[in-house]
Structure formats: structure tokens, C-alpha cells
Amino acid sequence: MVSGFTGLLTAAVFLPAAGAMVILLLGRGDRSIRTFAVLVALADMVVALLVFALFDQGAGADRFQFVDRFSWIPGETLRASYFMGVDGLSAPLVALTGIIGFCAVLGSWRVNHRVKEYFFWLLVLQTAVMGVFATLDLLLFFLFWELELVPMYMLISIWGSGRKEYSAMKFLIFTLLGSAFMLVAIVAVFVTPELGTFDMVELSTQGSLLAAGAVLLPLSVLFWLFFANFAVKLPSWPVHTWLPDAHTDAPTAASVMLAGVMLKMGGYGLLRINVGMFPGEADRFAWALVILGAISVLYGAVVTLRQTDLKRLIAYSSVSHMGLVLIGVGSIGISEGVLTATGLKGAAMQLFTHGTITGLLFLGVGLVYEKAHTRYIPDLGGLAGRMPFVAAAMLIAGLASLGLPGLSGFVSELLVFLGGFKAYPWPTAAAVLGIILAAGYILWMMERAFFGPKRERFADLTDASLVERVPLALLVVTIVGVGVYPAVLTDVFASGLDPIVTLLPGSG
Amino acid sequence: MIGEAYIWAIFLLPLGSFAAISLIIGPFFKRWPLLSGLALILPLAVAVGLSVWVLRSVALGHDLEFASYEWLDVGAATIELGLLTDQLTAIMLIVVTGVSLAVQVYSLGYMRGDNGYSRYFAYMSLFTASMVGLVLSANIIQLYVFWELVGASSYLLIGFWHERPAAAAAAKKAFIVTRIGDVGFLIAILYLFFKADDFAAAGLNAFHIPDIWLAAQPLAIGGAGILGGMALTWFALGIFAGAAGKSGQFPLHSWLPDAMEGPTPVSALIHAATMVAAGVFLVARFYPVFQQTGDALAIIALVGAFTAFMAATMGLVNNDIKRVMAYSTISQLGYMMAGLGVGAYGPAIFHLFTHASFKALLFLGAGSVNHATGTFDMRYMGGLRRVMPWTYLLTVIGGLSLVGIIPLAGFWSKDEILVGVWTGAGLVEPRVGQVTFGLLLAGVVLTGFYTFRMIHRTFHGEFRGGVDKEMEERDKPEQDGAGHGGGVHLAESPVVMVAPMIVLGLAAVVSGYLANPQWDKEIGIQGHWINEFLLEGLEHSVPELAGHFEVHDFSRWMAVISTGAAVGGLAVAGLLYGLLRAGSKEPPWVIRPVHTLLTHKYYVDALYEGVVVRRGFYRAFAGAIDWLDRNVVDAAVDSLGWISRTAGAAIGRMQTGQVQVYGSFVLLGTLAIILAFYLTWKI
Known about the structure:
heterodimer, B: mainly alpha, two-stranded antiparallel ribbon
């Protein structure tokens, strides 16, 4: 049994929550609250990056590192513990959460409505998401998973725009419904006496135990129960419709968190639980995931083309891009040859790269909306002349989003396609057509919103200020860095995914 | 022998310029824009020298094989960064760095005073670095990376004046249309990975280009026999799809004329000399693969020949000097593709080499004319030969080289393609060769016609008012950044623009004969040097395949026929425009339908954009999906919400607050659970 206590992960997870508590105690000064929140987020990013940097991916290293563990609910039947730890799969996602969280907090610099509560919820949200990636106890995983709903609901319904109450409620109902499925599955694991543990490491490394134990429900049902939850979160077609509404009406920072890290919880769950704990079922149903993924890619891209609201457009493009995660996960269903981690690495990479790219897109759109007071594309135009820095950042993010080599999106897309094509050539080849559609909606969006003659009504529009440039620049550097030298991430992901691959039937 | 680091430097120098201009000079030295020009030109001059060194080293037969560096491990295959420095690469390096240098010097003058001076040179250096990276690549994914990056730089440069709607739209169109071809290329790459286990079993890397060559050869001749049959043909066609997109081959040609919205030096470098030739390069790069599939080659030959002919016809009627040039470029690229299709490998690349010099020259000439008149519309030009003697002379040289008049460069290379097509190499059916030859020869006549028309309309007759007149007649407001050069000022362009044109003009005269003398040892250069040189490289690529090709001798008959065709085209145009003054009149009714068809580009653009994309795809298909998304998928969810609300209300009514009711529910529930346990557990 993995054990120990180093405290680093605990710090990464609970630093924002602790900061949130302190904010409640702070006085009324909005500026000091803001500054304090930024400092907390900065510190948390440093800790998260430290986790990533210190993670040892060498051959002889432990699979799970920075383990913090003590018994939480002792006993014979239910052995839940406070169990934190990262492997190669979760370490980059912890780093991603740190980066995106910092960008979201800094990107909220100009929020001035109920500032104290705003930053409180934003920081609590970060703890919840970080917790999902960092914990290795199934019960704790579920708790963090549910915890995230409250702050997000608050952020959308109080600081949002448009039909914000409707969208917030829709988000809540969808995700609650999804996690209800997961709860059933977790309870089923709990009431199976032979297992009697919530230790995700034991449940996955001893997959045989899960398979042999007379679990209350058949394994394939458990697989689909978990899948239903993660598919909603990802989101996959046809349970994606909450996403455009939530994004469109959410404040900028909530959109950044939502697209940047919260969708990634779905993909992470697929990899960690659906593939990690149910390798046999994952192999059996891989074809279904690939087909769902291909539909999501194409359907999402086609609907994206029709959007006239910048945020809605990016939201739908996320549906398309998250379809790639499903294809990558489904790549494990190869019929001949030796299974390698290529497609799974692609899926994991897509989680990271889409997080940074879409985070950047939403930050850029947030700045446009804040200054031009509209996101309706036909009303925009010629912004590149008024706000060149924002336009450049949007262009880089857009090119990364359409998979331009040299930027990070290409790497994950390529890995997913390589892996997916080897397993299911036809659905993957169909999904490849998505790269044309992606070029279409991104470049058309750039043309309509940023290019063209300068408009009189935007005459006094200003470019991003220094504070606003920092998160943009940080994400651009990440996107270019990963695009030029992807091995910095893929090697780490590989060290986490290779042990999962060895559980699968097709591995050599 | 040239060292590995020096070859990498050819790529890294312009890349360094890009970093320096975009990160340092652009933001911090705005007051000295000239710095950005120099930050590209000086390193580029070094790169030209290094390219010459590479050529020399390859010609001397040095072994230039270097180890590759791993970029990404993908299991059964490895994505590496490596150098493939063969004969083809050496020629391409000279073309890319040489033309780029000439164009950058010219840009110093042409772009003077533009607000985006630094941005321009930043994009240009990104393009040059990517293009060099493309021709050096030893790994197919490395090649694909640079392939996409040249596309992106092309996007940025076409849309350089992004405030002009036409430029922004053209940039988008160029990227999307070429990307349609790239899907084929990408799927071909995916197929390689599909077969990666077989490659690995044979000790090969599925992404390493020389290994792919070997894999496509049958076992019988000592190859690896991994790719074969129909799959090989489809693989080859996938690669060709990518090539067709970049090189503007039918049916993916429609982006290239629109790309003329970019600054003219950009058109000269990217859309005439280098990037659009990358498609031809790509087919040549995988030629050992194509050789094994006659079906794919036949398709390439026919597509190339048809493109050569069709694009030339569209060039006959256009009034925009740059667009005439663009159609001419598409047409000439068709010659190269057709040459590759029938097995004229050496001549095709030779034509790429000469075409780069004379077509870049013609574009720079058009830019020079634009500098003086402020327009690209030939209806508002005329009579410029008196005020711009140098531009006139150099354009005539470039034009005659394009038409293929002896002894200019274009004559030698075009003639070799025609001889190659006529003779064939046994790779495609003779009938394919005959059709190809017919179309190409007809294309020569058309080339003569549109070239004469272009030169006559621009430089002869009376001056027709330039941009001032154009604005007056069209009554349209001056667009931002469009009136480049700021109105009409009739004068020869500055030295900084004319000097690079003179250099290219020299190349357009002599590069054909010097690189490929038809008779041996006449001027100290081996006969058919470039042809022999390239074939040597091809034969070296897959040793088992040697002896498939031969270099054809100069054919007097062919020279007479092609010259006759070219002069015929010139003469007809001369008759029409010189004597009958056809330019100032409406076309006579006999040819009016044809004229209309050609000015509307065979309605291909209208079909693509209006019918297929806008109506068919965007309005009907995407509209339907979007409607479904809102009214079926989402509505299902909302109605689910309605059901649960209604159900919740119904259940709420059961909560009466009476303990007796609750008690009976508890009892019923317990019974149900016990029953369930008995049924499932069967204790």
C-alpha cells in the first residue's frame, strides 16, 4: 500500500481554499482583496509547477509520488483514507490547474461587483478542481467532484450575463445528473464486501480483484455509469448542450476555469477510471467511444460554424475538440499489432493543450467583451487595428486551436489521429475532416471580428493593459513551448499511462 | 565537405531573424524599421552562401548523411528532426534562399513607409525559415510541420493588409483550400503509422523518408515490400492531394489568384517561386514511391496537363496584371506536375528552377509598375515603357523566358518537359502521354498569347490614367492601405528595387543553358548537368532501382514545334492587340460566350463558394444540424427538466405530513428491498 506524507500536494490543493477563508476575514478594500487573491493564486501556481517539475519520471521511480496519506474512515467494510498523490497522468494536470487558476484570478482584475464573494468562490473552485486531479481515494474524488458545482453555480448565476440563472441551473442539473450515475457506481463498489476499499490505486492495479469480486453490478454497467458522468463533463455529443449556455453566460474567469480545467476532469476520469479500472470493458467498448468521438468532432465543428457569439463559438469548438479525447481513449481497441500508449497520450495531451488554448481564447474574448461591450460577431470587426496585442494572442490561440504545427494543439491532435487511425481507420479518417472545419470557423471568426476596416464606434478602444497582458503572455509561452518541445509533457504522461496500457488486452 | 551545423544554420539563420524581429526589433526599435529588413537580409545572405556550399558538397559526392534527433516517440515509429541533403534538396535550397534574398532586398524599397514594416519582415523570415526547413526534412512529419508552417506564413502574408476585407478573405480562402488537400496528406501519414509495426519488423522507421522509399519497393527488386497494391496507389494519391493543394492544381487552384491580395513581393516569393512549388517538390521527394504506382502517376500527369491548359485560358482575359501572372503560375506548375507524372523527373525540377527566377522577376516587375501607377488593373496602365525602361526591359526578358523563346532559361526547361512527355519513360500508358503532350503544347500557344497581351497592355500604347482614373471611374472610396505607393507618380522604381530585378533577369536569361547545356563540355559544364545531377540523386535514393531513366538529347524537331507554338501565340496576340487594338473594344459576339466563361473562371469559384460552401454546406447542411441542436438535442433536455419539475410537484403532493402515510411507504419500501434481495441473491 502506498503511504507517506510530504505535504506538497496537500498544499497545492488547499492553499486556494485557505486563501478563500482569509479573504472572508479581510476588510472591505476591494483592491487588497484582489491583490491577495492574485498572490494566493500565484503561490498555488508555483506549488503546482513545483509538483510537476519535481516529479520523477525516470524508469526506477515510484509510480505515485508526493503521497499524502492517513486513515480517514477506518474499519473493515469501508476503508476510505485521505489519500493524495500524483502519477505521470495527473502531475501535468495539476500544473495546468495552477496555471489556469492563476490566469483566471488575474483575468478577474476588473471585477468590481461583490468582490469578496467573487474571489472566495473562484479560489474554492480551484481547490475543488485541483483535488479531483490530486486525490487517489474514490470517495474523496467524488467529494471534490461535487464540491466544484457550488462555486461554479454561484459564479455563473451572480456574476454572469444574459440568461445567467437558466444557464447556471442547466449546468447544475446536467452535472448532478451525471454524478448521480457515478454515485450509483461508487456505492456498488462500496457494498461489495470483497473489495472494501476506495483506494483507486488498489482498484486499478489489482484490476483482477475488481473483475473477480462479485460486484453488485456487472462491470460493463459500472463502466457505463462512470462513463455517463464523464461524458457529460467532457462533454460528448449528445449531452453537450449545457456547455454553450454555461460558457456564454458565465463571467470570463468562470469560462476560463470551465474550459481550461473543469472539462478536463471528464477526460481525466475516462483515463483514470474507465480505462484504468475497467481495462477489459474499455477494450470491449472502445469502438463506441471512437464513434461518439468522431460524431462530437464533426457535429461540434459544424455547429461551431453557425455561431455568431464569440463565446458560444469557442464553446462549441470545445465540443469538437473534446471529441478528440474520446477518439484517443478509444484507440486502445486495436485488432492487430502491438498496443502502445500513443492514442492515450494524445488524449491526455489534448486535455492539457486544449486547456491552455481555450483558456487563452476565453481570456481574449473576455477582453473584447469588456472593452467593446459586445460579443456579437457581426457587430465586431477591425479590432486588430485597435487592440493588436489581443488580436495577436487570439490569432496564436486560434492557430493552435486549428492544429498548426509548432503550437501545442498540433501535437495532441496528431497523437490522437495516429493512435485512433491504427485502431479504427474509418471513423478516425472522418474525424480528420474536422481539421478543415476548424480552419474554417477559426479563420472566419478572426476575419469577421478582428480584420477588416477599423470601425468608428470602436475608435476609443484600448489595447490590453499590462496586468491584462500577463495571463495572455503566460499562456502563449506555454502553447509555443509545448508545441516546439512536446516531450516535456509526453514523457511525463507516458510514465503515467504505460502502467495503464499494460493492463489492457492488446498490449504486448 | 560541409558540416552538419552549417546546414542547420541555413534554417536557423532566418528563424533567428524571426525571433529577433518579432521579439526585439518590432516592440522596442519601432523608430528604426530598416533594422528589421537588415535583420533578415544579412543572415539570409549568409544562408545563400551556405546553400551554394551544400550544392558544391553534394555535387562532389560527399556523404551528407547525418543522424536525426528524436522529437517525439510515438511507439512503433519515431518522429525525428533530421537532414535529408540530397541533390533535390541542394537545388531547392538555392532556389529558396536565392529568390528570398532578392525579394527581401526589393521589399526594402517596395514596403517603405508601410506601418507594418517590421511585421512584414517578421512574417517573411518565418516563411523563409519554414520553407528551408521543408526542403531539408528527413522525416515525413517534420516535413508536414514545415508544410503547414509555410501555409500559415502564407496566410499571414496574404492577409498582411488585414484592414482590407478582400485580403482577409483571400488569406482565409488560401488556408482552407490548401488544407483540404492536406487532409489527404495527413491520412497518408496516418496510414504509414497503421503499418508502423511492419516497418519496425523490417528495421525501418515508418516516418523516415528514405525508409518510406524502401518500403514502397517490391521485395523482388530488393525493397521492403511493405506498401503495395491499391493501398500504395491511395497512399500516393493522398500525398498528391496535399501537393495539389499547395501547388494550385485543379480542382484546388482557386485560392491562388485570390492570394494576389498580398503585397507583391510576397506573391513573387511565396506564390510564384517557392511555396507553390513545394507541391512539385513533395511529389519529387516521394518519387521512388510514385514510380511504383503507374495509376497515381497517370492521374498526376493528366491533372497537371489539364491544369496547365485550363489556367492558361483563364489568363487570357484577366485585366489584373498580378492575376494573369497567378494563372500563369498555376499553368507552369501544371507543366511541372505533368512532367513528373510521365516520368520526366529531371526536366520537371529543372523547370521549377528556371521558373522561380523568371516568374519572381515578372512579379517584381508588376510590383514596380504598381509602384508607379498605384494600380494592378491593366486597363489603367499603358505606355509605361518610356518612363520605366528598366522595368520594361526586364519584364520583356521574363516574359519571353516564360513563353520559351530560345535561348532564354524557360525555353530549355519547357522543351525538356515536352521531350520527356513525348518520349515517355514507360511509367504510364502511351495514351496518357499523348493527351498530356497535346494539352501542354496547346498551353504553349496560350502562354505566348497572354504574355504578349500583358506586356502590350502594360507598357505600350498611351497611358490610361493609373489609380486616379480607376478611383474616379469606379467611384469607390479609397481603401485603407490599398492605394499602395500613394497615387500615380510615373517614374522608374528606385535602385533598391531594380537591382534585384536585374539579378533575377540575368538568371532568367542564362540559368537555363548554364545549368543544363545541351551539348557536352561546350562551356566547361557537363552536358545536361542539372538533369544528370537530379537523376543521380534519384537513383541513389533507392539503389535497387537504378537505370530507370535516361536523359534525352536535345531534339531539333521539338525545339521547332515548341518555338512555333510560342511564336504563334505571340503573333496572334500581336495581331489582335497591336494591329486591331482589341484592348479598347468589347469582344466581338463570336467569342463573347467564351470570353464570359473565362472571365468568370469557368464559374468554378461561384460553384465552390456560392453553391457548395455557402448554400449547400453552410445554409442547408450546417443550418440543419444547428437547428437540430437547438430544437431536438437541447429541447429534449429542457423537456426532461420539465418532466422532472412536474414529477417533483406530483411527488411533493404525496408529502402530506401524516406519519401514517410515511409509515406505509417505509413498509412498502422495505418489502421491495427484501424481495429484490431474494430475487437477485437467491439465497
